[in-house]
């Protein structure tokens, strides 16, 4: 999908404004998340790995005046194989961690916020502009054959002094399944 400033081209996810409480507990359940349309994502498997279709992944999103909220549900047929070796705020190597990678472009091309959240909720912020800043939160949950994440990204963190609710953003999102 191309982003040309104010009018995004390609697939567009319309995020509803949050109208109910949104617990940040890693679970993608409750009225507010149910009101957000799920979007299917591809799982990036290593060559020769089990089919990505066995690892259905979906994302939901909503917003309020303070933040953008994202939720991910990641199917995992073998929960015992989940790998998440990075600790919170440590660099995350995607091919060594089950994780979700998110790039956010609040305006055309720059600045881009790139974050990774592992299946255990460890956060990492890739940045070249300054030291990583962690005013955003992420929580994970593990259930029967699934792990999920809830993420809260304050508008001020997305684009200091410039991001505003309701404005188009470009998101590039993928789930990574590590090399076995």
Provide the descriptors you would attach to this structure in a database record:
single chain; 180 residues; mainly beta; 5-stranded antiparallel beta sheet; 5-stranded mixed beta sheet; 2 helices; 10 strands; disordered N terminus
What do these coordinates show?
- The protein is globular, with a radius of gyration of 16 Å.
- The strands form two sheets. The protein has a five-stranded antiparallel sheet.
- It is built from two helices and ten strands, in the order H-E-E-E-E-E-E-E-E-E-H-E.
- The chain is mainly beta.
- The protein has helices at residues 31-34, 155-158; strands spanning 39-41, 43-44, 57-63, 67-75, 99-105, 113-118, 123-126, 137-143, 146-154, 170-176.
- A hairpin with a 7-residue loop joins strand 5 (99-105) and strand 6 (113-118).
- The longest helix has 4 residues, at 31-34.
- It is 4% helix and 34% strand.
- Backbone CA Rg: 16 Å
Percentage beta strand: 25-35%
Multimeric status of the protein: single chain
Biggest sheet character: 5 strands, antiparallel
The number of distinct β-strands equals 10
Q: Estimate the global geometry from the Cα principal axes.
A: globular
How are the SSEs placed, and which strands pair?
Layout (H helix, E strand, L loop, with lengths): L30 H4 L4 E3 L1 E2 L12 E7 L3 E9 L23 E7 L7 E6 L4 E4 L10 E7 L2 E9 H4 L11 E7 L4
Parallel strand pairs: 2-10
Antiparallel strand pairs: 1-3, 3-4, 4-9, 5-6, 5-10, 6-7, 8-9
Describe the structure in brief.
With 180 residues, this protein is mainly beta. The protein has two helices and ten strands; from the N terminus they run H-E-E-E-E-E-E-E-E-E-H-E. A five-stranded antiparallel beta sheet has the order 1-3-4-9-8.
């Amino acid at each position: 999908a191309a982003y040309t400033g104010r009018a995004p081209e390609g697939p567009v996810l319309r995020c509803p404004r949050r109208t109910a409480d949104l617990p940040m507990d890693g679970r993608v359940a409750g009225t507010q998340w149910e009101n957000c349309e799920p979007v299917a994502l591809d799982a990036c498997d290593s060559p020769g790995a089990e089919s990505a279709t066995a690892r259905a992944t979906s994302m939901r999103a909503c917003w309020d005046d303070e933040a953008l909220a994202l939720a991910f549900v990641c199917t995992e047929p073998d929960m015992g194989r989940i790998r998440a070796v990075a600790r919170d705020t440590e660099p995350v190597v995607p091919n060594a961690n089950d994780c979700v990678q998110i790039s956010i472009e609040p305006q055309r091309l720059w600045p881009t916020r790139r974050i990774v959240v592992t299946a255990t909720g460890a956060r990492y912020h890739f940045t070249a502009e300054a030291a990583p800043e962690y005013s955003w939160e992420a929580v994970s949950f593990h259930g029967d054959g699934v792990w999920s994440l809830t993420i809260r990204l304050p508008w001020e963190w997305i684009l200091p002094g410039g991001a505003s609710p309701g404005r188009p953003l470009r998101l590039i999102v993928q789930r990574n399944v590590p090399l076995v």
